[in-house]
Amino acid sequence: MTTAAVAVGEFRQAWRGLLRRPAFFLLATFTLALGLGAVTAMFALLDKALLQPLPFPHADRLVTLGFVDSENPSMNSVAPVYYARLKAISSVESAGMAMGGSADINIAPDDHAEVATAWRADRDFVATFGLPMAIGRNFDDAENRPNGPRAVILSDAFWRSRFRADPSVVGRTLQVEGKGMQIVGVLPKTFRWPQHVDLIVSMQPDLASTDSSMNQMIVARLKPGATVAGASAETASVMTSILIASSSNPERMREALANSQPPAAIPITRSIFASTTGNALWLFLGAAVCVLSIAVVNLAGLVFLRSLSRTHASAVRAALGSSMGRLSLPAFAEGLLIGIVGAAGGLVFAWIGLRLLGGFVPPAWLRGEDVSLTGTSVAFAGIAGIGAAMAATLLAVVRGRRREWRSQLVGGGRGGLSREDGRLGRVLVVAQIAVAVVLLVGAALFTRTLRELQSVPMGFASHGVTTFTLSPVKARYPTSADVAVLARGVIDRLLRSPGVEAAGASTNLPTGTQLNWPIVLPNHSMIAGQYRIVSPGFLDAVGIPLLAGRGIAETDASTADPVCVVSASFAREYFGGDAIGHAVTMPAGEKTLALRIVGVVGDVRQFGPAEMAPPIVYTALNQVPPPIWATLRDFGPLSFALRLHPGVGLDDGALRKAVEDVAPGQPISNVRTLDAVVASTTDAQRLNLMLVGLFAGLALLLASVGLYAVMSVGVAAHRHDYGVRAALGATRRRLLLTVLRSASVQVGLGLAIGLALAMAVSRLLASFLFGVKAFDPLAIGSVLLVLGTCGLLASLPPAWRAARVKPMQALRVD
């Protein structure tokens, strides 16, 4: 018989024997599948966030051009005045422009008003990515010219969800902001963008524009052979020359440019599609690897204990002349089957986990991709599953080679667990507990961080406040005065609703978003301050306290002197705390707007509880100059806030009906409580806690099962010894304490090693924590309590069985 035939026979016989004992097979594969599911799910996220190539042809040649953001060096922006010159640089094959971000717009397909997310871009921007349309076409020459016919391109997802993938949608007219626009095409399914986008509206750039507002982006495709460094040098040369030529003081402009970061070309993999996960995904992958390592250690223990059941049979075969390789074949055959089935189970667990996780993962993490398994992650699961199972089998085989076959033959296979076997089992338990400690400490620290963040005063009262957004239809409300009248009408109607205490509107809610605008101080210095437009009653509705002076009032009409209210930090930082009566100015088109400070209000943590409150200027909605509103309305809708009496609630239908009464056909969106808005500012910390907490729970479960298994086998192997002790007068209490003492030594040693490891890796967690040190006594104390309790519960059943051993049964000779 050939060697291959022998191997096949051994494998077939081993698999039959394994399937006849389903309890061991199911436990082993389930243990492996749990650990493998965790690490495969995290690997799938990492693959989509960092490893997979972008779906654009020659994506390595795609760059963004412009000024580099000092606060975010991975992003750059431009103004329309630079567009024509940048398109013409020698390194660039093609280039297109789009707005820096998406915005909510009002659409009315089938005469039903709703809100969609739109993105303004020109024809060359879409073409530069190099993907053909799924159906239809790109914008044509007429649609790309200033004041030409407006057109829209739908995203694949919006086309499928809103128009049921109807190809005849191309050519139809869609009402966008009260004006008819032709649908000319649908983006391919492979087109990805980090943020959600429903449709693209033709931007129609003016190549002769002198507009210097830095709200656009340019994406360029470099020519073959062109380098990013070369494109950066050309970009810097073009943009600085335009800046110097347009400056009233060229020499001073040269000095300013020399002391700042020059304009540059940045590959889109490091700009638009740069991963925003930071170290979070690596942290989660590390936690999942810890779970997998515990599962592998547990599996190694199970496979080793399984090998003990074959010791006598192996001794017989060894005495008859079987080689060590042939003796090891059954173990490796079983390990292979366990690896294959465990990998399949791990993929099922990973798929379920990703489905449940989908709503919690920020879309920007995955560069616009869906949360799902990838081909690479499936291959990873298969390789890791089989590799882990075979590694556990190898450990058992190597350990088995040290057994004395003669003693097994003499003992008739009743040799049981040797001293060395028991020591190995205890070492495996200690290793599992140590790794579990690391994960539990991480989960405890994240729990403390979330509680600390939730206890930070936000500077406003969110409870009992309902919010929604409204983007005034441009064709019906073209001017800032029209918008102010609309907002006043909606607010008055809301105030007549039962249970409404206060209501108001603003460009921003007090947390979760931001809006910057140039502000000139009395000393003529300019800052990029936080700017808010508010209606009378908004600050009261969201509970921002008035500290001095007065707030924005009904008397602050368009005909009255322009006024503003500033936050306490603005007053402290720029006026030494005495701001009332002073004035600041803001650029408004070709003119400037002078604002007299009439009040000081409390600080709010606009960027969430982990960030300090920024200086903010609040101005009256009735006094917004048309140039400022014309710019702002493209970046965000108005946010309305209603403070309700306790126990009162307004659902979507009631709010939509109230707005419909004032402005028929005006849709609203984003209806949610201000409490939910505040909670969203800690989404990252919640995700950290959820994933690390889940992995810590799995680690605790696997470590407890491992401890239980080792203690159970140890008790069964030494049943004769316990019977002798009982016969010699040992009480049940003493036998119980003997087993518990052995378990406590293993748990204690695992805790000590685990705490040392946790302190060693604590630096990796520092950037994720808030208000908590890595060595937190409360967190560590809770981990010791939880693991100690679980260790006691896992060792109690085996200890109780040892205490109840009956001497006559234990001493009976079979």
What's the average pLDDT? 83
Strand content: 15-25%
Computed CA radius of gyration, to the nearest angstrom: 34 Å
Helix/strand-derived category reads alpha+beta
Explained architecture:
With 814 residues, the chain is of the alpha+beta class. Helix content is 49%, strand content 16%. The strands form 4 sheets. Strands 4, 5, 6, 7, 8, 9 and 10 form a 7-stranded mixed beta sheet that branches. Helix 2 crosses helix 11. The two termini are 39 Å apart. 43% of the residues are buried. The model is unreliable at 315-321 and 402-417 (pLDDT under 50).
Name a few traits of the molecule:
single chain; 7-stranded mixed sheet; 23 strands; 49% helix
Secondary structure elements and their pairing?
Blueprint (H helix, E strand, L loop, with lengths): L2 H18 L1 H30 L10 E7 L7 E2 L5 H5 L4 E8 L3 E5 L6 E8 L1 H6 L6 E2 L4 H4 L6 E4 L1 H8 L9 E4 L2 E8 L12 E4 L13 E7 L5 H19 L3 H9 L5 E4 L12 H29 L2 H9 L4 H34 L17 H26 L4 H6 L8 H36 L10 E6 L9 H16 L4 E7 L9 E5 L5 E9 L3 H4 L4 E4 L13 E5 H8 L7 E6 L2 E11 L14 E5 L5 H7 L5 E7 L7 H11 L6 E5 H7 L2 H35 L1 H9 L4 H29 L1 H4 L11 H27 L3 H5 L3
Parallel strand pairs: 5-10, 7-9, 16-21, 18-20
Antiparallel strand pairs: 1-2, 1-11, 1-12, 3-11, 4-5, 6-9, 7-10, 8-9, 13-22, 13-23, 14-22, 15-16, 17-20, 18-21, 19-20
Helix pairs in contact: 1-11, 2-9, 2-11, 2-12, 7-8, 9-12, 9-14, 9-21, 11-12, 14-21, 14-23, 14-25, 15-19, 21-25, 23-25
Brief summary of the model shown:
It is built from 26 helices and 23 strands.
